[in-house]
Amino acid sequence: MLPLVPFADGSAPPAADSLRERVVLVTGATGGLGRTTALAAAAAGATVVLLGRKVRPLERIYDEIDALGAPKPAIYPMDLAGATPKDFADLAAAIERGCGRLDGLVHAAAHFDTLQPFEQQSPEEWTRAQQVNLHAPALLTQACLPLLRQAPDAAIVFVFDDLDRVGKAFWGGYGVAKHALAGLASILHQETESSGVRTHALLPGPMRTALRRAAYYGENTLIHPEPAVAAAAVVRLLGPGAAGLRGKALDLRPPA
C-alpha cells in the first residue's frame, strides 16, 4: 500500500502558475471534491477536462472557471457506471485530439448508496459500486497511460478512504472497492516509479460533501469544512514540485 504522509501545508493556496500549460482530467467534476479540484487546478493555470454524468452541471462549472480568467476547460459527459473500455479509449483519443497532451488525471468520482448489511445489498448496487469506485479508475488510467507517458512529467491522483473505517460492517461494495483501489495504486506506482508518470493518492478528512451525508445521514455535515484543503492538496500533487511525494498518499485527516 502507498505509505501515508501528513499534509502539513493546507492553509497556503497553490501558486497561480503551478499547473500552467498542463492539461488535467478530473472525474466526478460535478461532485464536492471534483468541482473544487477542477476550480483549483484551473486557478493554478491548468486546462481542465471536466468529466461528469450530466451536461448542465458541467456547464455551470465551465462558467465558473471561465469567470476566473483561467484557460478554457473542456466538457466530457460520461456516466462511469455504464462506461465500457471503448468509452475510456475514446475519451483518451478525444483529449489527444483536442488538447494535444495530458499531464494529470484525478480520480475524484465516487459512488456510495447507503450503509446496509451485505446480504441486503442488491447485485445491481454491488456492481455499480465496483464499476464507479474501482473498474472505472482502473480502466480510465489504463486508457490514458500512453498519453500521460508522452508528458515530461505527469501525475495520477487517486482518492482513498479510511480503510479501517470502510472495512467494517455495512460498508459493502464501496468498502471492498476502496480496499482494491488502494492495492491498484500501489501496483501502478511500482510499475511507473522509474518513468515520468507519478502515482499519488489523497486521504481526505471529513468534508461537507454528498457522500459524507449519505454515509452519516444523522450528522450535521455543516460542522465539516468544504473540500478546499483537499483540492489544494490535489493541485500540489499534480505539479512538478510533488516529485518527492511520488508513491505517497497525503493524509488530511485531523489528529485523533
Automatic annotation (TrEMBL):
Entry keyword annotation includes Lipoprotein: no
Organism phylogeny: Bacteria, Pseudomonadati, Pseudomonadota, Gammaproteobacteria, Lysobacterales
Protein name, UniProt field: SDR family NAD(P)-dependent oxidoreductase
Listed transmembrane segments: none
Leader peptide range in chain numbering: none
Keywords of this entry: Oxidoreductase
Taxonomic superkingdom: Bacteria
Stored Gene3D superfamilies: NAD(P)-binding Rossmann-like Domain (3.40.50.720)
Annotated family: Belongs to the short-chain dehydrogenases/reductases (SDR) family.
